[in-house]
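User: Fold this, then the next.

Assistant: Folding the first:
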Amino acid sequence: MAHIRKTIRENIVTTLTGLATTGSSVYETRIFPINYAKLPALMVYTQDDNVVEYTITSSSRTQHRQLTCVIEGHIKATANIDDTIDTISEEIEEAMATDRTRGGNAKDTKLQTTEIEFEEATQKVGLVRFTYIVDYVTVENAVQTGA
């Protein structure tokens, strides 16, 4: 079995697949080279997984964790790029709010920040980056499932 972090990340990818603006262009990676012709697209990845407290029991400790999950929206730069960013933002935020427990694997999911950038590579691209905090619980010797 995989770490519950992977299960949570996969749940987010599933949640975001099929949105009106980005459709099936959702990738579970931070390094996937996105083809400009296939934009807009979303990339989902995790960053930090902090253990914020322990509960000591007789056999093992329960870990309360906060997972930092990033969703990046990559958009072709057009005259109405700000409108497209706002549309993608609305779709992502509403989809993420439909199940804050990430399929029963988390206690809560909270939007922490939204950043908007424009990149001047070979093609101009807009970027909207959402940082979510996912609170979940594991047992230190069984991190494949939530506690």
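Now the next one, as you asked:
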Amino acid sequence: MKKQDRVLLSIIIPTRERAKTLAFTLATALDQTSQDYEVIISDNASVDDTREVVERCLDSRVRYFNTGRRLSMCDNYEFALERAVGEYVIFIGDDDAVMPGALDKLMARIRIASEPIVYMWPLHTYDWPVGNKPAGVAYLAPARAPAELDLKRMAKFVISMGSWKYYDLPSIYHCAIPKKILDKIRVDTGRVFHSTAPDVFTAMAIPVMAGRALNIGFTVTLNGRSAHSNGLGFINKKAFTNIQLFLQEYNDYHFHSTLYPCASGAVNMIPDAILVAKDIFTDYYKGVLFDYDAMWAYVCRLRFASYREVFQKRAEIRRYHAFHPFRFLFFSVIQEISVLRRNILNLIMPLDEFRKDTPDNIQDFVKALAARSSNCRVQN
């Protein structure tokens, strides 16, 4: 595909030395009939056979770029976005997937829309095999009726709850964002991706540019959690090491001045991105206070810190922001109830054949999931 050719949609896959999972991810992205989209592989100076994996696919919709040197995550995202020519942009990870035919369905909806809008969808989560542990399904999101979302209200809730539910907002990750919105962020702020968490930052920046979004109700892309990804790392405790390693690529980056600097990178990454967005878009978020007590409850819920540790260090924490033990306990109860609710929902999740026999790669998984959905529609 030539650079000057315009397409409706750009699927961007930033990658770094994950050729084994990338091969399957790329195959799912190309399992669509439309030619009106591109798949950009932004290779962050990999030393494995990433380039060879991409070149083997022989599909004109694919465009490969190598950064030439190791970049931070945000800089790699900027590098990739600058090369996208689609009217809409979707970022996915190199261990994620696209549902068969889902881009065709999404683009059909985009074409009939009266104006550009942000699109998001229910997200499934697939766990790749790791060591002796077989593949599994962490979450199957139920289909839902299309629903319009009030982004301003949602974003202000995130700030008032110290980062909780930021993931309910659309970001550049697993959402279709009009490129003109991302271009506006760059024009207004100097670049699109600030902080060390591009997905979290854009979740807070997009509401400034777009007051509403549409959850289309059917899955287009889905999360994959592999051995080297932070998603699965949060389960097997390897994410802390991964996060510290990639934070080093930001050189002398300092987290927000109101955050406790002795906390781990895992504790501060998400709140930092939200506070950075709040500072950049001061007028939009004027009058909305970031709740640090709720923040600590949320990071404890994620097991980035322990409740005991937070209480023990409360005097040090108060040097940087207010900390109220009883409010912290109140929000902690809310978070643990949320964890209990999620665990119960996971137990009753209708996994059927996937409960005992999950395909060992994400490409076969999405094919099986699509076939299952098709069979369900026929039976109904």
